[in-house]
UniProtKB/TrEMBL annotation:
It comes from Bos taurus. One of its GO terms (biological process) is chloride transmembrane transport. Residues 1-23 form the signal peptide. GO terms for molecular function: chloride channel activity; extracellular ligand-gated monoatomic ion channel activity; GABA-A receptor activity. The keyword Phosphoprotein does not apply. It catalyses: chloride(in) = chloride(out). This is GABA(C) receptor.
Length: 468
């Protein structure tokens, strides 16, 4: 019984394990078609790896340049003499210059030259290797920044515009395309006849003169510009490179490089928009000197129009300029022009006031009758050459029977003989009143027609001779 039960038990186990063993055997035994396809796939992958060398290139450049063997957090030759870094610049464009913000925007290629023996590699052909921006983060590069810059960025279309070229002896060329907006300390005392001197300053941020020495690679020829650079309001007179030192109390002395350029403003735009309209308004104000002094609406409206126009020109120029506390050249011209326009209005106010005063004096001294007959007496005097008094003219009506010639002679003789002291007093008074009116009204306008243009022309000659 015991043997029979053991036999039955082993028989059940064998029946259970046999299907699994056969399945495993089938899995381990490859199908001939499957094994051939797998071998072909392995061959194709090996062939692709051989043809596509870019997949193994990162390993190659790390091995050639010994990237993993050195600590590039430290500068070349750490602990010894400062590493010399040469700089040259290719200016691509000056994008904008703002007087209100006192800054400029420039796009240029910044190139660095230095030698790092840690990057030296053996080469039979002595050819350099060129890399893109991906290698920059793995090696040491100079930490140049722009002093007084407001914002700057490296162009990244379609990829970051960075180039690194390494020679077999370890010499490195690092080039980057940058746009910088920096401050320009402008002087507007001669605006718009001014010339501005702006500069872009380059300096190392972390390394002072004991660690890094900045210099222009090719001296004065290190700064190159595009021949087609042009600005709407400025003419670029000069580009120059210079160097100096900057001292910081906490960190020491640093090498600093300067990109200097001189800008001279084009005057033609401001002549058309500011100076010429101001001249026209001043000359228009002179028209009132030829208008009759009794035409009050015409002369007053002309004066007010020219004053308001000059105020508009002044406000337009001030809106486009920074709020500086000193006087600019354009302010001198516009304020003097406004003064001439204002004086032309004051001139008519003086003429009108004197006319009113003289009419009141004449009314008080000669009376209403004298004023009523003054025009008729003046007309008669123009014909016969004698002064006519109203009372004498009325007394002469009794001599109507005489001939015309006798009547004229009688009136002249009668005017001289009858009541001579009182008549002569009236004659002298009337002559003085007429003479005062003529001298204080017509003469002021007449003198103004000559005096105003003469003084304004002299001012223009003096102004342009100083500022141009």
């Amino acid at each position: 019984m015991i043997l029979a039960s053991q036999l039955v038990f082993f028989t059940c186990i064998w029946i259970t394990l046999m299907p699994n063993a056969s399945a495993v055997a089938e899995i381990k035994t490859p199908h001939p078609r499957c094994s051939s396809s797998m071998e072909q796939t392995r061959k194709q992958e090996t062939k692709m790896r051989k043809e596509d060398s870019t997949k193994v290139w990162p390993l190659k450049y790390k091995q050639i340049l010994h990237i993993e063997d050195h600590d590039f957090a430290m500068r070349p030759g750490f602990g010894g003499s400062p590493v010399p870094v040469g700089i040259d610049v290719q200016v691509e464009s000056i994008d904008s210059i703002s007087e209100v913000d006192m800054d400029f925007t420039m796009t240029f290629y910044l190139r660095h030259y230095w030698k790092d023996e840690r990057l030296a590699f053996p080469s039979k052909t002595n050819k350099s290797m060129t890399f893109d921006h991906r290698l920059i983060k793995k090696i040491w590069v100079p930490d140049i920044f722009f002093v007084h810059s407001k914002k700057s960025f490296i162009h990244d279309t379609t990829v970051e515009n960075i180039m690194l070229r390494v020679h077999p002896d370890g010499s490195v060329l690092f080039s980057v395309r940058i746009t910088v907006s920096a401050m320009c300390f402008m002087d507007f005392s001669r605006f718009p006849l001014d010339t501005q001197n702006c500069s872009l300053e380059l300096e190392s941020y972390a390394y002072n003169e004991e660690d890094l020495m900045l210099y222009w690679k090719h001296g004065n020829k290190s700064l190159n510009t595009d021949e087609h650079i042009s600005l709407s309001q400025f003419f670029i007179e000069e580009f120059s490179a210079s160097s100096g030192f900057a001292f910081y109390s906490s960190t020491g002395w640093y090498n600093r490089l300067f990109i200097n350029f001189v800008l001279r403003r084009h005057i033609f735009f401001f002549v058309l928009q500011t100076y010429f309209p101001a001249m026209l308004m001043v000359m228009l104000s002179w028209v009132s000197f030829w208008i009759d002094r009794r035409a009050v609406p015409a002369r007053v409206s002309l004066g007010i129009t020219t004053v308001l126009t000059m105020s508009t020109i002044l406000s337009g120029v001030s809106a486009s300029m920074p709020q500086v506390s000193y006087i600019k050249a354009v302010d001198v011209y516009l304020w003097v022009s406004s003064l001439f326009v204002f004086l032309s209005v004051i001139e008519y106010a003086a003429v009108n006031y004197l006319t009113t005063v003289e009419e009141r004096k004449r009314f008080k001294k000669t009376g209403k009758i004298s004023r009523m007959y003054s025009i008729e007496a003046t007309q008669a005097m123009a014909f016969d050459g004698c002064y006519h008094d109203c009372k004498t003219d009325m007394d002469q009506t009794s001599f109507s029977l005489h001939s015309e010639e006798d009547a004229l002679q009688g009136r002249c003789i009668g005017s001289l003989s009858a009541d001579s002291p009182r008549i002569q007093r009236r004659k002298s008074l009337g002559g003085q009143v007429g003479r005062i009116i003529l001298e204080n009204n017509h003469v002021i306008d007449t003198y103004s027609r000559i005096l105003f243009p003469t003084v304004y022309i002299m001012f223009n000659l003096f102004y342009w001779s100083i500022y141009v």
